[in-house]
Amino acid sequence: MARSEAYEVIVVGGGIGGCFAAATAAANGAEVVQLERKPADQGGFIACGDAIKSPTDPKGYPGPIDMAAITSDEAVLADGNIDKIEWWDEELGVRKVLPYETHSNVIDRYEFGQHLLEQTGELGVTQHFNTVVNGIVQNGQVQGVEAIRDGESVEYEAEMVIDAAGAQSVIQDMVDFEDLAVEPEPTFEKPHYTHFGSAYREIIETDEPVEYQNAIVGKPLEEMGYVWYFPRSPTAINVGLGFQMNKEPIALADRLREDVEDRPEFDGASVADRFDKKNKLGAALALRRPLDSMIAPGYITVGCAAGTTHPITGKGIRGAAFSGYSAGKTAAGAVADGDVSEQRLWEHNHYLYVEHGEAAKLAARDAYNVAASSIDIPVLRAVAAILPEDEIREIVSTKTSFDDLASKLSIAAGATKNLVSHYRKGTFEHLGVSKEMLYEALMGFRTTREYVDRYEEHYENYPASRDGYFEWLAERDRIDDEFYDAIDLEPDARKYQ
Ligand SMILES: Cc1cc2nc3c(=O)[nH]c(=O)nc-3n(C[C@H](O)[C@H](O)[C@H](O)COP(=O)(O)OP(=O)(O)OC[C@H]3O[C@@H](n4cnc5c(N)ncnc54)[C@H](O)[C@@H]3O)c2cc1C
């Protein structure tokens, strides 16, 4: 028979979301245990491009974790000089430079993860490493988890379970949501596989500093995805690539080799070592939009498991952090109130969509994703080539607004200038993109922008209590249908079909 241990809050996962959740719940008075399947010295060793946006911004990283202390350690913040994003389409001779005034950095993700775990422990969280969660205890509400700790079966009981187990979490697969005490039906949205992407990276050490040492660089793949070069230091480059799971899979490691092998800066370079192995890691990641509802009785989910992460716009680490904070605070409050119902835990959904608000922005911008997924890659590359930097910044949300007439006119003028120049160079003939195809894509893009605004307004009106949820959801689904019709989306390209 399994040994049993009791706490008030169980946090599954020792990543970003798990640490922010556990630390916040403990700082708010709860008795917390954090369960992580890896050994203590490998916690935080996670597949990542290592790019972190504004790491000391309290909105991105709220709660008791001291990000200033962590990122002031040179072992974590090897290169704090990143001040631009560059988009290279080398075949077309395109190089877009987007200034990054919100300040980005490339960190050593392992060192960062170790510091996070250490601070979480110091804030009073009990941490069990080498502990794999492999079962759920539920009876009307989620009441605990079953796990194997150092080879021994342990049953952990608690009032609240926070699922911070990352993309494609097995925890949410194991909870029987239909069997929980919720009327008329559970609100929790089970993630669909198209919520996720798959990505892979290597840390490559070069002999000489790379020329783009203060930029994070992205490049298109012929498939729906992109390659990145993120300099962790002038000579240690996080090089990786990824694709969305609604597209054909790519042999990621082979595809990366193909990309780097002829580049002069990687001539003679080698993959760095970590734990006596080559530092190569791949994983799934959530890169679409937050779940419509992230709670169930006794259960809250965060980070990649909740879809609050959007690595493409620099919110992979950050999206796990602020959602972890929200879950920790909500869970501690619910335990103190003796009420872990959906009504009580609704605070988590509402905070993320309305008070914090980032979830509303991410969810609204998923319209760009839906639209882009339905366009052929050569057409997308042509669109990226002619769009001025300002417009791209809006899409990747490094810029907040350009609604005044002057900026709109300058964007239109910029696009026309780029269009003329690319026609002269023969870019579009080379890609096999006709004027009609380009025009259609640009019109679709304009329509999508209008819908992004409509979605954002709707998400900002996310219901304050569970009572208004199903009505709100029906209206969101109606906007979806209208949007798909407006951009003539094929039925099989529609969201989550
Ligand atoms: C290749 C790649 C590149 C990326 N690049 C960037 C980037 O440059 N910038 C950025 O901001 N984001 C990036 N991301 C995304 C970012 O890494 C994630 O958004 C972030 O790690 C999510 O944090 P999390 O806490 O939700 O999940 P994770 O970091 O995945 O943590 C989950 C934890 O749960 C543990 N766990 C899982 N299942 C169990 C179980 N059953 N029992 C016990 N423990 C369990 C895991 O071991 C892990 O430690 C990238 C992701 C990938 C895969």
Automatic annotation (TrEMBL):
Q: Which UniProt keywords apply?
A: FAD, Flavoprotein, Lipid biosynthesis, Lipid metabolism, Oxidoreductase, Phospholipid biosynthesis, Phospholipid metabolism
The cross-references to PROSITE patterns, in alphabetical order and at most eight, read:
PROKAR_LIPOPROTEIN (PS51257)
Q: What is this protein called?
A: Dehydrogenase (Flavoprotein)
Q: Which Pfam families match?
A: FAD_oxidored (PF12831), GGR_cat (PF22578)
Q: Where is the Digeranylgeranylglycerophospholipid reductase catalytic domain?
A: 199-248
Keyword Ubl conjugation set for record: no
Matches recorded under SUPFAM superfamilies: FAD/NAD(P)-binding domain
One MF term in the entry's GO annotations: oxidoreductase activity
Q: Name one GO biological process term.
A: phospholipid biosynthetic process
